[in-house]
Amino acid sequence: MVWIATQGIAGTQLQSVVALTVILAVAPSLKSQTRSAAAPPPDQQSKNRVPAFEVATIKPVNTKALIQVGVDVAPGGRVSLNGMSLTQMVGVAFHLSYWQIEGGDWMDRNQYNVVGEPPEDERASIPDTRHTLFGIQDERLRQMLQALLIDRFHLRVHRETKTGKVFLLERNSKPFLLRTTRAISADSDEGAAPDSLGKIEFAGKWVLYNTTMSQLAKFASDNMLRAPVLDRTRLPGSFDYWAPPEDWNTYQNDMPGSFLHMIGEIGLKLVPSKGPVETLVIDHAEAPSSN
After folding, report:
1. For residue 3, is it within any domain?
2. Model pTM score
3. What residues have CB less than 8 Å from 269, skipping those under 6 apart?
4. Is pLDDT above 90 for 33?
5. Contact 83, 69 (CB under 8 A)
6. What is the mean pLDDT of the chain?
7. Are residues 98 and 152 in the same domain?
8. What is the span of the domain harbouring residue 104?
9. I need a labelling partner for 269 at 20 to 30 A (CA). Which of 36, 41, 186, 249 fits?
10. Number of domains present in the structure of the chain
11. Helix ranges (DSSP H) in 159-220
């Protein structure tokens, strides 16, 4: 988590997901057909069900206080969104960057703490708790968050897509300097296994921890390029990196420039291209209903 005063919060670190599955009812005229055609078997019904949290709470945040800001995903898929505006939560749920969301100003003025618990019988099947401060890796958890926002904030949205500038994250000819994040056994003398939080930070030099290539691409899209960045590296797993100390003197006042320099130095490149650029338009939203 990040501690931050909410006065003047700018939702710049946001991070897209497929639309919710629509369950179609069987028309009465089909009753004369076979039972399997009229009513899918239980396992198929389970596949068609829209994922939803079993229990969820939404609480307004005192914006004059020092609060936690960011996403947390606990084992079993328990999702916590802390000190986040509706626009930020929409970005997390739909896996979009802040610049890709259009909506009303009030959605940025109010912050909320949200906690969602998946159904008990599904918790064991959600092993992927990887997340960043403004993103969730597991698609089902994002769908559950979408359903929650639609239900409690009466959210209605539509998507618009046009062709525009995109970037491709690819390998370049230099050696690949990121090292694979090493999982540490819980019973090891070296301590517990690293958590599922992926972090990309800048403090005069860049530090990557437990970061996948898709997360790196999303970070570049959200914060540096304001354009879609597509991962074309084909590099699985997560990685760590600490920039050399000399970056502090060269780029301490130029974070975008230092990021692009770092990308090239670690064995990657961002290639301009053309492709689909998606925008999510919020047609309607209301203050959340009570818990």
Report:
1. no
2. 0.75
3. 169, 170, 171, 172, 263
4. no
5. yes
6. 80
7. yes
8. 50-157
9. 249
10. 2
11. 213-219
